[in-house]
Amino acid sequence: MFFCDPHPTMRRVTLSFMLFTLYIQLSSNTVLISSDTNYHGITCFDVEREALLRFKAGLLDHGNQLRLSSWNILEPNCCLWEGVECDNTTGHVIKLDLRNSHPFIIDGLGITHMRNNSAGLGGKINPSLLSLKYLVHLDLSGNNFNATPIPKFIGSFKELAYLNLSNAHFGGNIPPSLGNLTKLQVLDLSSDDSLLKMHDAKWLFQLHALEHLDMSNVIFEKDASDQWVHALNSLPSIAKITLENCNLNPLPPTLHHVNFTSLSLFDLYENFINSTIPSWLFKITSLQHLGLSWNSFHGHVPNSIGNMTSLRFLDLSENNDLHMSRDILLELKNLCKLQILNLGYMNIEHRFSELGVIFSGCMKDNLQELMLYGNTLTGHLPCWIGNLTSLIYLDLSKNSLYGPLPQSLWQLSALQQLSLGWNAFNGTVTETDLHDFTRLEILGISFNALVLNVSINWVPSFQLKELDMSGRPVGPAFPAWLLTQKTLVYLFMSQAGISDTLPNWFWDITSTISYLDLSDNGMKGKLPTSLEFGVVAYLDLSSNFFECPVPNSFLNVISLDLSNNSLAGTLPSKINETSPMLEAIDLSNNKINGTISSTWCELENLIKLILSDNSLSGIIPNCLENNSNMAILNFSINHLSGHVPASIFLPPALEVLSLSGNNLSGHIPIFTKKCQSLYYLDLGHNMLTGSIPVSLSESLINLQVLLLRSNNFAGNIPPQLSLLTFLHFLDLSDNHLSGVIPKSFGEFASMISNTKHELSMGGYYREVFVTTKGLTLEYEALDSLMSLIDLSENDLYGCIPLEIGNLNLLHGFNLSGNHLTGEITDKIGSMNQLESLDLSRNQLSGVIPTTLTKLSFLEVLNLSNNHLSGEIPTGGQFNTFVDLSIYINNDNLCGFPLSKKCHDNHVPKEQSLKDEIDSDDSDTICLGHFSAEEVLENCLFFIFRSHTGAVYVTFVVKFAKIKGWYMVTEDE
C-alpha cells in the first residue's frame, strides 16, 4: 500500500517491507534444497545432532516461543527438528532455518517496524555448528543477538550458498572471513538498527558466485565506501544490489569496464550521496529496478537513460538538485516496460502539458504508478492524462497546477490512489465524476479550492483507507457521507472550515482509524469520557471548541493533542491503567487545573508529554526516571512550585525539557552523564537560585538551546559553557550574574561554523522572544541557522572580550543593562551575520567603531545610555538608523541623525590616542579607567591588559618637534 503526501516516509517504509517480503520469497528459492521431510529411513549423523544440541544450549528464547522445543533427545532424528533440513540422500544437515517468522509489527499507522528486543532467539552462537560441514543454507534473520559480532567462523562453511542474518541485531564490524564463502549466492545482512559496520570491502571481491546482496543500514566506513563499487563490478553473476542508508561516498565518475551484465536491481535509497550521477550507471541495460531516491545527486540526469529499455521501476525522487531538462525527459518515452516512475522533488519546472509526448507512446499501456509530487509543474491538468488507463497510483501533489480537473481524469477507473493536494485546482467534483472509481482507496485533495458537491445521502462506490481534505472548503456541516466509509485508516480534515457539532455517529466509524486529524476547525460538542474506541494511534483535535474534562482513558492512543480547546477540570489520575500504548500527549493551552499525578511516571511507553499553558499546580513528581522512552517533556506556563527534581534529567532518551513560566525554586540539580541526549533546556521565568552548575557543560554534550532567563541565578558565568559544541542559543538574561564575560565565549563552535547535528525528534519547535529597544524579535530556537547570546539585565562588569568577534554566525547579541566598561571592540564588525545588537545601559566609552557599518544584516541597534563620544559612523545599515533614542544619553556623540554637529576635520583627542594604541603590537583591549585627557595633561602612565592576559606599563611621552605619539612599553 502506498501513501500520499504528506507521508513520503511512510510510503517508503511500506514499500521497503513489500520488497523485502518479495525478496525473501524469491531468494528462498534461489538455492535448490529439497523440502521433502520424509527421509525414507535416513537419520541425521550423531556428530551433527550433538552439534545442534550444543548450539541450542547457548541460545536464549527471548519471546518464550518454545521454537526449539522439538530439539531434544526424545526425537533422535534431528532431520525432523523444526528449522532443520537434511539431504534426503546422504542425511547430512544442509539447511538451518531459524528465522523469526514474525519479526515485524505494524503500528496504528500501518507502518512496519521490527519488534522490540524481547522477541526472537538470542544468546551465543556456538562454534559447534562447524560440524555441519555440508550446510548450504543458514537463516538467523529477525532474531536478537544484542549487538554481538557476527561470528568469524561462519566464513568456514565452505558449501554455504545462502546466508541471511538480516534484522538479527548483530553489531560491530562485519568479519572479512565471509569472503571465504566462495559458493555464496545470497547474502543478506540488512537491518533497521545500523549496528553493523564494514571497515573495508575487499572481501567482497572473493564472492564469485554472489547473485543477491542486501546490506541496507550497514554503515560503510571510508575504505569500504570507496571499494564497494569496484568489488561488486568484478562479480560476474551479481543480479540484485540493495544498499539503502549505508553512508556511501560519491559514486566513482568512471569505471574502466562495466561488468554489471546480469544486474537487474540496484537500490541506493537514502545515502545522501553528494555527486553527479555517473554516466556508466545508465549503461547497465539489464537493469529492471533502479532506486536512487533520497540522495544529494546534482547536475543533469545523463541522456543515456533512454537506453535502459528493460527498466520497470525508476525512482529518482528526493534529489532536489538533480535536474531533468525537457530533452532528457523526452528520453523516457523509450522506456516501454516502465511500470513505476517516481520523479518527486526533482525541481522539474515545466508545463504539465509538455510531458504529453512522454506518456503518449508505448509507456502509456504499462505505466501503473506515476509520482511527480513536489515539483514546479504548472498549468492545467491536460486531457491526455486519461490515456494512462493502467494507472493505479497517481500523485501530483505539491506542484503549481491550477484550474478545473478534466473529465478525462475520471476515466482512470483502475485508480487506487489519487493525490492532488497542495495545488491550485478549483471547480466542482460531483458524485458522477467519482462514480467509476470503485477501487479507490486513497484520495488526497487537500489545500486546493476544489468543492466536493455531493448530496447528503450520497453513498460512494468506493471504500477509502485514506482521505485528506485538509485546507479546503468542506464545512460548515460535517460531511455525512463519511458514515458510509467502513475501512478508513487515515482521516485528515484540518483547516476545513467545519463549524458543525461533531455528530455522535462519528465515534462509531473510528473502529478502523489509526490517524485522525480534525484540528484547526470550529467544531463544537463534547468529547466522550473514554477514548477507548477503535485503534486510533494519532489523535489531533486541537484548536476547536470542544468542552468537558479530559477523557479518562486513551486505549491504543500513541499521540494525543487536545490543545487550544475549552477543556476544564483536573487531569485523570488513572490514565496509566487504560492507555498502555500512549506515547505522546499534548494538552497545552486549555483550562486544565489540578496537579501532575505520579501515575504519569508509570507510562513507560510515553515519548512526548506536553501540558503547557494550563493551570496545573503542586510539585513535579520525583519519579520520572522510569520513563525510559521520554523524549519531549513540557510543563511550561503553569503554577508548579517546589524544586526541580533530579530524576527529571535521568530519562536517557530525553531531548526536550521545558519547565519555564512556573514558580520553581532552589538550585538546579547536578547534571549527570545520563542526560547526554538533551538538546533543548528551558528553565526560564522561575525563581531558581544558586550558580549555573559547571556540570551542565560536562554532561549536556549535545545541548543546542539553553534558556535560563528571568531567575535569581548569581555568581560568575562558567567559562566552560563554550565546551558545548552544538550550543547556538544561550539566554542567561534577567538574573544576578556577576563577574566578567568569559573570553571563552568567543569559542562557541556552532556560532563560528555550521555544526551539523541531526535530531531524532525533529519537528518540535518553540519560539524564543528577544526584547531589545522596545522591539520583540521572535527566533525559532531549534533553527540550526540561528544563533543568539543574551546576557542582558545582569551585574556583569569589565570589557567586552575581543574574542567575541570570532562568532561570525551570531544573529542576536544582547549585553544591555549591565555595568560593562571600556570601549566597543571593533571586532564586532567581523560578526557579519549579526541582525540585532543591544549594548545599551552600560558604562561603555570611546567612539562607535566604523567597522560596525560592515554589518549588512543589522536591523536592530541600541547603544543608548552609555558614555560614548565622537562622530556616529555613516554608511551601510547605519544610514537606516534614524531613531534618535538608540543613541540617547551619550552626551558626547555627534553627527547624523543627531542634531549635534561634529567639528570639521576634527578627530577627538581620545580617538587619536586610541588609533595609536591600536596600531601597537600589544593588541589593546581597553584603556582602563584613564581618559585621554588625563594622559595628555599629566603624562601619567596607565595599565592595560593584552589579549593574552599579560600586564604592561605604558609611558606616553609627547615630543614637541615630532608629530604623533610614541609609546615605550615594558613588562611590569
From TrEMBL:
Membrane topology per record: Single-pass type I membrane protein
Q: Keywords assigned by UniProt?
A: Cell membrane, Glycoprotein, Leucine-rich repeat, Membrane, Repeat, Signal, Transmembrane, Transmembrane helix
**Entry-linked SUPFAM superfamilies:** L domain-like (SSF52058), RNI-like (SSF52047)
Leucine-rich repeat-containing N-terminal plant-type domain segment(s): 48-87
What subcellular locations does the record give?
A: Cell membrane
Chief location of this protein within or outside the cell = membrane
List the GO terms this entry assigns under cellular component, sorted alphabetically: plasma membrane
* Pfam families linked: LRR_1, LRR_8, LRRNT_2
Q: Where is the signal peptide?
A: 1-28
Give the protein family.
Belongs to the RLP family.
Protein name per Swiss-Prot or TrEMBL:
Receptor-like protein EIX1
Q: Which organism is it from?
A: Dioscorea cayennensis subsp. rotundata (White Guinea yam)
